[in-house]
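User: structure tokens for this one?
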Amino acid sequence: MTGLIQFLTKIQTFELRIIAKAELKSPIKQDGNKPAYSLGHETHYYDSFTYKSEIRVLKDMALIDLVSLSDTSLKRELEQLKKLKDRFKLIWANFHEHYNEFKDEYPRNFIFSIQLQYLFIVNNLQSDYKDIYIGDEFVESLLDTLKIRDKFLSELVNEIDEIINPHETFEEWMAKQESPQQTEDVALEQPTKIPYNPEAGRPKFNHQFTGDFLKLLMTYFSEEHFVQLTALIKLDEQPITQLIFNGRGNQLADAFKQLYEANLIVGCNKAELEKWVLKHFLYSIRDKVNEYTEGWLSAVISSDTKVCKSPILEVRIKDKVPFLVPTLRNKKNSKY
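Assistant:
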């Protein structure tokens, strides 16, 4: 089980580095000799491109270890992995509560406020934290490395879950209904499979408001991707590729959340809405394309925490009728 141990250790350990503030890529160089936390070496946010590949390889090694187990042992391991996923959901909720995309500098107790040291192993964390600078460069790197870890943990959990509980296709399920006797014989030999319905859990948009909603989103997508977005929302046509939202990821997630809570999106629960967003969208900040993760989206869409400091829209109610209102776009000066 060496591969599994290495993977779990890697995604639960944060190796903080302390560098001079002047070494940060941020142009803010006042008090340049003061110490600052850095995590840039653990992410691809700046110059490190190997970390993500390393986590991917360790995840594959962990999968090899797990598939060699008996069914009973595999189920036990899956339960433990799901508990770890819950801890990632908690760190995302804490992170979003204290994250502000417009801050240059964060409180010195930021790491303790989000309980990073409680939920995971944090090496080189200084007890005299008041002397260590924490800027948005560190927080954005932390955001990146959390996403990488969460992404591959979720992939491992989903792969193991599929091995234990394989989903038969809707066509396979329908074929069984035509042969009930054969179905009974198979049922005695195999555990029941869950029939797959491709229509289940897909968000359905209230067509009365889709025009206004798409008009608000138009400036956030390229022309090509906006055409595919329109087909996705109006006709449920699957896009050729994932659609890139040119803005902060929580802005798009917050927009879908507001529509859902106003019953302008139906046909799914919030968890299914999160999976739909995860499947179809990416977002781009400072010309860097980012992926969503299950835990990150859950902290925005399923949590009641107020997380979006710069929403792109607001759903208001007048005479019991909802309507969409655009909000002013706040912009943070690019420093990288």
